[in-house]
Amino acid sequence: LLKSSTRMTDAHERSFIMVKPDGVQRGLVGEIIKRFEQRGFKLVAMKMVTPQRALLEQHYEEHKGKKFFDPLLSYIGSGPVVAMVWEGLNVVSVGRKMLGATDPAKSEPGTIRGDYAIVTGRNIAHGSDSDKSAKREIDLWFRADELANWTNFSSKRRRVSL
Ligand code: UDP
């Protein structure tokens, strides 16, 4: 019983994915969206925003006190980012694999960072690192009414007359 309910919720797992300012400036928004769409994930929310410092302090709270914290906040707060929520089976762990290692020098070619970045301080995109962080980050960045509830037309069982 537990197993089947776990499977049910897994298909609706969600991750917070953000194209950072360098990704936006380098014209990689479409490329990143394309990869998530083509992998089979479902886009449930997206917006372009220049995040306020208070939001970023919460988003990166686990790094407070580290030496890269202030530069990181200035960098992410410097320009618009594209914040998104993607949904699908294992989207958190698969999304992290698609992004590649935090340090692009260690990211495999074929990953987003492995294909487009060379330094940790400009690593193109963010992805939640656990289900718990995903929930926290989605709550932080999006209101409930900004999350779209939709079903692919072709997967609906209905009579069509076109
Ligand atoms: N970061 C940095 N210098 C570091 C470590 C991290 O600038 O030495 C930045 C980088 O943008 C990274 C973010 O801080 O993506 C968050 O770090 P984390 O270790 O959580 O990596 P992520 O989850 O983003 O892969």
From TrEMBL:
Q: Which residues form the Nucleoside diphosphate kinase-like domain?
A: 12-149
Residues reported to bind ATP: K20, F68, R96, T102, R113, N123
Q: Active site annotated at which positions?
A: H126 (pros-phosphohistidine intermediate)
- Lineage: superkingdom: Eukaryota
| Entry similarity comment | Belongs to the NDK family.
Please report the name of this protein according to its UniProt entry.
nucleoside-diphosphate kinase
Natural source organism: Didymodactylos carnosus
| Included range, full protein | 68 to 229 of 459
